[in-house]
Structure formats: structure tokens, C-alpha cells
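WARN no homologs supplied; continuing
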Amino acid sequence: MVSISVGRKLRAKNTVSGIQNSPLPAESMPEKRSVIHLENVYKIYQTGDLKVAALRGITLTVNKGEFVAIMGSSGSGKSTLMSIVGCLDVPTIGEYYLDSIEVRQLDERQLSIIRNRKIGFVFQSFNLIPRTSALANVELPLAYAGLKPKLRRQIAISALRAVGLDDRKDHIPSKLSGGQQQRVAIARAIAANPPLILADEPTGNLDSKASEEVMGILSRFHQSGRTVVLITHEPDIASYADRLIRISDGRLYSDEPIETHHKTKHQSISGSYAHGVSTDTEVTATDVKAVSAIGDSTEDIRA
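OK structure emitted
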């Protein structure tokens, strides 16, 4: 039996399935609450006698509420880093804490629980289920989390409303544009209120207008207090973030804030988007908090 509390924004309790919060060593503890903390992380792949180090001593902290872009060329290690941050893989050497939970020691079942409860994924290829409505796609992670049908439908509709697509809830992916499909994917990512939104090349398959819409949504959710990590190879997309990390040959090459004047145009775009520009349904700042508001009940859902 797995228990989650809707009153705690659908996040897993610390004792779910034996997963315990693991305090960081004092010397590693950041001043602010970290959502991501990697300490001297290596990822080594071995084929026969050949060993290849895809990551080499990565130390990185992302605090709650940050919007971080990670850039790197092909073969730089950014995809491997994304896999580890997303709990799709674990470090060979080093420590990784996700929302204070030490990831490296978890088994596959525990990792799947962590992915469901702690991370909202947005992929380049959308990864929507064909011949399944937008609403059902958004409900899917909530079903895996064990929520009752009535509650998960209510949350999914609010999530679709927050990306301006509640009037498209019954459309299957093939009846939606690429930008709309990615907005459904974002709704799915935020539905369970995870502490981390992980977006891997979210605009890679979109035209410039749809890219602005998608990045406007991610910017708006960041402004509402969410933590967003963006993997991209496009400098203009990375400039939506507050902090830019560059990776090369498996090592961190640079880590610096993005200057405010570079973000002025993007803030204007995301602000106007929040009031219905380029959408079929008006989206307001209230919608950003809609999913969280649903989670304010004290009902326990068990599966």
C-alpha cells in the first residue's frame, strides 16, 4: 500500500516504500533548500575492457525556485546528466540528492516512484499516447500515483486550463498542433505538483511562434515558484532561464547568471501570454495556482 497526501501537493511522504530523506553532509549543505544536489558525480560506461567516462566529477546544486538552463554540444555529457537528474540512471561514483532524497542507493521500483512523485518531464518528442485524449494523457501520472478518478480528472482539467487547452481536452494528439501537443505535455508534467520540472529540448520540434508559447508557459510557472531545469542547445531558448550552465567533455565548463536585460523581452512575452495572447483560451495568473489549490484538501489517497 502506497500512501500520498493531497494536502502536501501530491508529493510522496518521506517514508513511502522505504524511501527516506537523507541529510546532506554539513560541508555540502547549501544555504538555501536544494531540489538538486550532485556531489563529485561520475558516470562511467564499460563495454568489454573499454571504459568511457560520460560525466567527470560534476558538482552542482539547483535551489528551490531556480530556472536553470544546461547547454552543451553533442557528446558533451548533457544527455547523461539529464538522465541522472531525471532518475533514469544513477551515478557510477558520487552522490545525487533529489529533494533531499539520496538517489544512488534506490532500486528500480523506488526510482519509478521518485520519477512519478518528484519530477515532471517535458520531452522534445512530446511522448503523448496516440489515440488517447489530451485529458487522459494528463491524467496518466496521477493514475500511477493512485489518485481516485474524480480527483485526477479535476486536477487534469485544471492543468490543461493552466496551459490554455481545457477546451481541447477531448482531442487526441493527431488533432493537435505541435505546440498544442507540447502544452499538453507540460500540463502532464505539472499535474502532480512535482518539485522539479525537467524539460529536455522542449522546443526542438517546434517553430519559432510555438517555441515562444511553450517557453512563455515554462517561464510563467517558474515565476509562480516552480523549479525548472532546461536542457537545450539553443542560446535564445537558454536565455529564458536565470542561470546558464555549460557542460563540455563531461565536466562543468561554466556556471553563471543570465543578465536581467537579456530577459526583458522574454518576460514581456510570457506576461502577455499569461493573459491569453496566442492561446485559444484565456490564461490568467490564477490558473497557475489552480493545481496547487486543488491539493489543499486533507484527503489521503491510497493505492
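Residues 83 and 89 are 6 Å apart (CA to CA).
OK
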